[in-house]
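== Protein entry: sequence and backbone fold ==
=== Local backbone shapes as whole numbers ===
==== Amino acids and backbone structure tokens ====
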Amino acid sequence: MASKVITYDELKQHTTKASMWLLIAGKVYDVTKFLDEHPGGDEVVLSESGKDGTEAFEDVGHSDEARALLPGMFIGNFEKSSLPTLKPNGSAAAVNNAVQQSSNLAYFVPLAGLVAYFAYRFYSGAA
């Protein structure tokens, strides 16, 4: 029997305590019945709803026992092509421009200070 394919839109519809699906390593799990039993509390799991929770799941370092529970909650594979395409953000260009300007400023301020120091030394020694 072929696994069900879960789209991004379907995943986003299951982000509450009444119906909670998690995406972990390209697979979707219905963790609704497990929320009350989760050792870290249901808020930890709810915070990963509607997005890829793989990194959060792996960072915690779940035990083999926790990983053994996953197959019983498996409902389908995630369709990666259903993810919305991110549009370029104009503010990213503004941030890049600001960083570039501050980088130039960080270069010229010490240089100006050095020039001022040598000018002071030159003119104070000539008097």
Observations:
- The domain at 4-82 is CATH 3.10.120.10 (Flavocytochrome B2; Chain A, domain 1).
- The mean pLDDT is 80.
